[in-house]
Records
---
Amino acid sequence: MVSTRVLGLGISSAQDRRWSYLSDHVAGAAAGLALVRHCRDVHRGTPAGPVFGGVVVDIEQDEAWLRQVCDTLVVEPSRVKQAAALLGERATRAKPNGRLLGSSPLSRLVELETLCSGIAGKRSLWRSLQEALPGEPLEVVTLAELVERADDQHARVESIRPVIAAAALA
């Protein structure tokens, strides 16, 4: 039997809303981690490679902290949402890009922009938790520190945008 939670019906309690919200973010984190690893691999040996490599390490830690938050709030993230997000991330690589094999410079720019959007979404998650659950003992680094980490990650990824944009659009 399919539960009403899986169908998105009957999400009325605070716990159900937390489950839905955090499941979406865990799914997004899984897709974001797959994307940043792909970016690291595609840019290996270029000046952007170390930037993506450092962001991979950070996002792996952020994902672990997010899972700790889920554990503390007694939320079991949806595996269905995670699988769908990972499938979607992989599917975006199959889009036409003017090349039969491999990615084009335009694909690399779109991937960078998608990663920036994901980091901004993660920052919003930390801010929302900070504002909605100020007294909740989440047992991770402070949510304010996680907001700062997201800002730092975004700045590092943005620092390589000019080179990637020029390669794609110039």
---
Amino acid sequence: MQSGPLIDPADTEAMKRRHRWAANDCSGATLIDLMLVVTILGIVTAVAVQTFDTDEMAVDALARQIVADIYRSQSLAIRTNTGVGVAFDKTANTSKFVLADGSDPATQEATLKARPEADAAAVDELVAARSIGNKAYDDGRITAVDFGGASKVVFAADGRAAAPGYVQVVQGDAWLRVRVDDVTGRVTITGP
């Protein structure tokens, strides 16, 4: 038994209309279907974002701050044409810009400016420079520092590091290492 209106098979125009109606009846998704899919995707995304590990985000932020300090010291070494670096203090969880001998640039300002190759503006910038970790890093802890046995990385006037090494930072179960290559002066962040 056939349901629906009976159509004369000879009436081809009526058959074409029925065929178009049937094709339109089951063709693709409706607006409501699309809205439902978008809503479900939104809920799944919101849950995924909330479950992203905050320890990983904190340790990543700390590693990036250390990278910024290291690159700044490298830039200052090139601009001032003298050895400049960053000294890390694990106990205080801080860092500071230092000269190659470990001294504070502010105490050596007159000596630095007296050098014939010194640029006074660059020396002033070095003396005024403060690392991000000057007061203490907010998130995470510095747990290991090793630059050829020293707790500081120092860059020569050409931007090369005096020794390769790393700074390891930890927050909760997450950790990262900031590595410095001595040949290229390149700084990278590596993880577990």
---
Amino acid sequence: MVQEKTADVKTMTEFTAKKQKILQAALGFAADGRWPDASLDALAAAAGLTAAEAAEIFSCREEIVSAVLQGIDDRMAAEDFGFDPARDGVKDRLFEIIMLRLDLLNENREAMRVLLRDLTASPAAALQHKSAFCHTMRLIFEKADIDFSAVWQEEAAVPALAAAYMATLASWRQDDSADMAKTMAALDRNLSRMMRFLAVFPFRDSGGKSIWSNL
């Protein structure tokens, strides 16, 4: 039994290592302009793997892009923001979380610009990523300690946050400044618009106050 568990751990470790090699190869291809014509075989070769090994992990390029973004989600989920709802307003919490996500995207800025553009280049690619994107928006709310008491509340809030995030992402793509001042200003505006929109819905805290009233 111990030997079986050890073998399973080794297999999983090898799988993870191969996966990371492919993801790094994809980031490299995207950063230097080779992504549009990159095949899975070419990515496997760049990662030092056979085509068969790569095919066991990813079946298409969209899965690779999704895995890159899932890695961003995982790092965001692991972050301890130390928020105090009594001290930190809703907007401030959302702002800090989204800026962290953009900072993580900035670590491979040129590559992420290309991969994100590729992901939204066609309706089919965007549709494939829709579920994962909605999960990211829910994760942002979760990290901000915003709980929804009814399904309809989440269904209203998630698209509103998605719109604010995508509008900010458009600014991020054009913002080459070191301090991301334009991006931060855009995020501030977009969150304010989102909260004004959501304030018309009956989202209430335990004291009966709208949770979106904190602008």
